[in-house]
Amino acid sequence: MAETTPPLLPQMLDQWQSTLGWQPTEAQQQLFQRLYQTIVITNQSFNLTRITEPNDFWEKHLWDSLRGIQAWLTTDPKSLSLVDIGTGAGLPGLPIAIVKPDWQLTLVDSTRKKVKFVQQTAEDLELKGVNALSDRAEQLGHSKYYRAQYDLATIRAVSKPSVCAEYVLPLLKVGGTAILYRGQWTDEDAQACERAMAELGGKVDRVETFETPLTNGARSCAYLKKITPTSTDYPRAVGLPTQKPL
Ligand code: SAM
């Protein structure tokens, strides 16, 4: 089947500015376009995402990915380490790598083929801080090379909040922050997350609820702070966090 070249992404400079107080550079916009093109072309033979229209991709993948790190977009003076669990096609990890070239990012997924795609895309886009890894969060959390090594962890569309918390808290340094990207944030989510935090050595720092800028979709980001080392009981064995959520 012949490959069709995807259309241009919208620039949306006013929207970036009014919603996040930040704008991408010309070079970053070009990288967004190349990322979009790569995902859409690959999607013709390997299912990575249902979101392929330019405005949709801008809003639901690029904007959404960067909304989660809004607090760091204009402020961080130093290089940070970030792990993105269940990165899929590299979301939110690759947009973050584009705007934060000095950060060290580990993009993790249990599906080898997706990880191969992410690693190749990072190389093509010359995103030097990216390392893509095929593993399960439950295993990575017990590796001495990855446990308690990260300043930030992101996790989007992987599982319910308490499961996500069990995947990411063990990977954070004490003082680090996990960002759980969600749709709606319900009372049930809040209660389950509080329970999980007590077990995992963290606390819910804040939950931000907001709407996406083009279609007003409900979104939230929960920011979890690690306050003490996580017990080595966590994460539990592969599959247990989802079978018996905390
Ligand atoms: N984060 C991406 C996004 O927002 O578009 C992908 C979301 S996709 C719905 C969930 C991904 O999480 C899948 O690619 C799946 O392979 C991965 N995943 C699920 N459980 C995992 C685990 N325990 N460890 C690592 N990856 C996992």
UniProtKB/TrEMBL annotation:
Its EC number is 2.1.1.-. GO terms for cellular component: cytosol. Keywords: Cytoplasm, Methyltransferase, rRNA processing, S-adenosyl-L-methionine, Transferase. It is an enzyme of class 2 (transferase). The keyword Lyase does not apply. It comes from the Bacteria. It is found in: Cytoplasm. InterPro entries: rRNA_ssu_MeTfrase_G, SAM-dependent_MTases_sf. S-adenosyl-L-methionine binds at G86, L91, D109, S110, T111, A137, E138, R156. GO terms for molecular function: rRNA (guanine-N7-)-methyltransferase activity. Specifically methylates the N7 position of a guanine in 16S rRNA. HAMAP family: 16SrRNA_methyltr_G. Belongs to the methyltransferase superfamily. RNA methyltransferase RsmG family. This is Ribosomal RNA small subunit methyltransferase G.
